[in-house]
Amino acid sequence: MRIIVVGAGVAGLAAAARMGGAANDVVVLERGSAAGGAALSWGGPCTLTLPAVLRDLFVKTGGRKASGGGALEDNVSLVPVDPVRRFVFADGTSLALPNTARGATKDAFDAAFGDGAGAAWLGLLDHGNRAWSAIRPTLVEVPDASRAELWRLYRSGSGRRAIAARRTLRQVGAACGIRDPRMLAVLDEYALGAGSDPRFAPAVLATRPYIEHAFGAWRVVGGVPELARAMYERCVARGVAFRFGAEAASISSGSVTLASGEQLTADVVVAAVDAQVLRRLTGEQPASASKTAATAGYSPSLLSLRLEASADLELPHESVFFGDPGRAATDARLDALFPASASASASASASGTHRVPADPTLRVHAAPEQPRELVVQVDVPCALPDEAAHGYVPTLVELVGQRLGLSPEVTLTLRETITPADRERATGVPGGSVNGPAITSVGSAILRSPTVQPIKGLLHVGASSRPGPGLAFAALSAWNAAEVLRPTRV
Ligand SMILES: Cc1cc2nc3c(=O)[nH]c(=O)nc-3n(C[C@H](O)[C@H](O)[C@H](O)COP(=O)(O)OP(=O)(O)OC[C@H]3O[C@@H](n4cnc5c(N)ncnc54)[C@H](O)[C@@H]3O)c2cc1C
């Protein structure tokens, strides 16, 4: 079978590796000059959850023996992180989140927020467990699951309770006893990490803290570009051909036309690009749609700073520094990030102006191999113009120094800035949005853009397709697509 994969991000690489081999003739078309996509555009440390998805990919495409290409751990150095991350609050409280241990997790929450906090968090994880057990076999790992499967789940009492479709993540958290605004900020982080406004995030996103807790959090030594390299090499070993600088201009059934005018044909086209890019390529959405309209309802982007300290720093793998946890300050932060949200100021969204959060949450990543290097991620609105992003940077650098509590003799030097516009240039994702369409419901969290598209022979994989954003889910979407092509299913 001849297969064209459009896009060489993690999802495209995972799909190409799975579909490559003797049976198929696979070519990957990538508009950029290297494989990795978004994973390259944030140049650094990552937190990997559900490593089983990538382990399965490497075993199924090369076997466990080094002679066959080897398992994931033969190709990248994967290290469990403990703590998973440290949450630091404006009042000086901090919470070091342990990796997987239930008892230690309860103790850590009690120590940070007082007795009962640990039990409340475990209650939320249990809800996440029930939701994951309900959706995994019915919606997540079913390649062509649709609304019909979701309705079937709603119709069973246990399914309805597990998904809690009418409730938000915050409401489920409150029912479990999460009321401290600092704990709420921790919960909100899991909604934001999926591209959802925490005020409206559906309860099913409790699966995210559950997955992290149950299956652990890991880092790739050398950062996520190492993972992209290993996946690319696996593809090449499987006979997959790559064409870089090859931008698809349109996709139709069994054919891809490049920007150069060249036309390529195939039995199957796997679009491993953002859902909005796919709609443009298939002609479903007018290319002339204004950027404001096209990006409304899209998840925020990230502003990334690479900083170098003048002295070695001892920092955990990931630290999250929160600003004021009060209701008004939190709403102001979220209004800035989600201009399309109902509660956002009408004038801000109507005029299309972009505001940056005045009191942002900073996510600081560090790796012990490079004790002077920091990568800082800050949520910013999708499509934030470059001018506004660069204007924001000096404030952020100062804030990083303050929140890290650096002594005056330690200085931070800015080495690199990656803006939403840079992300858009690197990946083609409109506005540089990181997680595709903002998640507002169970359907938008899991069903998203379907694997099997209405156009014959067209499959969609990636962070904006099913089952959701992030490295593991992007790779899982490729498993879904490969399942569709299994001879027993066609
Ligand atoms: C700053 C940052 C930090 C993150 N941190 C984490 C983390 O810690 N843990 C985690 O799990 N996830 C993290 N993520 C999310 C994760 O990186 C993404 O979900 C994942 O990499 C998306 O992969 P993808 O293959 O779906 O899309 P992409 O990586 O966007 O790949 C799409 C590819 O398609 C190409 N393309 C686009 N249009 C065309 C076209 N017309 N023709 C040909 N090629 C085209 C693009 O150039 C790109 O290479 C982070 C993301 C960012 C930006």
Written overview of the protein:
The chain has 490 residues and is α/β, with parallel strands linked by helices. The protein folds into three domains: 2-81 and 223-293 and 438-484, FAD/NAD(P)-binding domain, CATH 3.50.50.60; 99-215, no CATH class; 295-427, no CATH class. 41% of the residues lie in helices and 18% in strands. The longest helix is centred in the N-terminal third of the chain and has 24 residues, at 117-140. The protein starts with a strand and ends in a 6-residue tail after the last helix. The protein binds flavin-adenine dinucleotide (FAD).
Give me some keywords for this one.
490 residues; alpha/beta; FAD/NAD(P)-binding domain; five-stranded parallel beta sheet; binds flavin-adenine dinucleotide; NAD(P)/FAD-dependent oxidoreductase; FAD/NAD-bd_sf; oxidoreductase activity; Amino_oxidase
Domain tally: 3
Ligands bound, unique: flavin-adenine dinucleotide
pLDDT under 50 segments (min length 5)? 286-294, 342-351
Radius of gyration: 22 Å
Quick description:
With 490 residues, this protein is an alpha/beta fold. It contains 20 helices and 18 strands.
Secondary-structure topology with pairs:
Blueprint: E1 2-6, H1 10-19, E2 25-30, H2 38-41, E3 48-49, H3 51-62, H4 72-75, E4 78-80, E5 85-88, E6 94-97, H5 102-113, H6 117-140, H7 147-155, H8 157-163, H9 169-176, H10 181-192, H11 207-215, E7 217-220, H12 224-237, E8 241-244, E9 248-252, E10 255-258, E11 263-265, E12 268-271, H13 275-282, H14 291-295, E13 301-309, E14 318-321, H15 327-337, H16 346-351, E15 362-367, E16 370-380, H17 386-404, E17 412-418, H18 420-427, H19 442-447, E18 458-460, H20 471-484
Helix pairs in contact: 1-12, 1-20, 3-20, 5-6, 6-8, 6-11, 7-8
The structure holds flavin-adenine dinucleotide.
